Amino acid sequence: MLFNYKEHRIFAFSDSHGMHKWLHILEEADILLCAGDVVSGFGKDGMEDFFSWLLSHPAKLYIFVAGNHELLLEDSPEQAKFLLTREIVFLHDTCYEFDRISFGNISTRSLQSKESNIHLAGKMDFLITHIPPEGILDEGRGSLPLLLEVYRSQPRFHVFGHAHS
């Protein structure tokens, strides 16, 4: 999906499952948002290839959130540092601001945790999660706590993946 926002061309995608080289990103996209599941398995195999491919596209900003296939990045900060570079912003229950645009994330682990108290700090432009909110394009796999937080915090846009249709 490519769209304009605050003088930027933003391309958002997810769930390439190792087939990222067949994804066409227009050169004019200057912010790339990935909502996870970039590898076909559940380990780090293929991640280096994906991140190299991602960085081969000319952009001002690259933002990545882990999907259920990249949970090792959420579980092991050492793996995240090894696989991600300073050029790629890895959002994990954090917020990031770039050129007056705010981005936030609620991690897959936080959404799966029964004890999690999901609460975003302040209004943001983009909420990027891997898991969808319950009842919204979720194929029955969405998160009710996420839906409630989206209603409460009202991000301008919510980018998510996980449900492939």
TrEMBL record:
One of its GO terms (molecular function) is hydrolase activity. SUPFAM superfamilies: Metallo-dependent phosphatases. Residues 9-164 form the Calcineurin-like phosphoesterase domain. PANTHER family: CALCINEURIN-LIKE PHOSPHOESTERASE DOMAIN-CONTAINING PROTEIN (PTHR12905:SF0), METALLOPHOSPHOESTERASE (PTHR12905). This is Metallophosphoesterase.
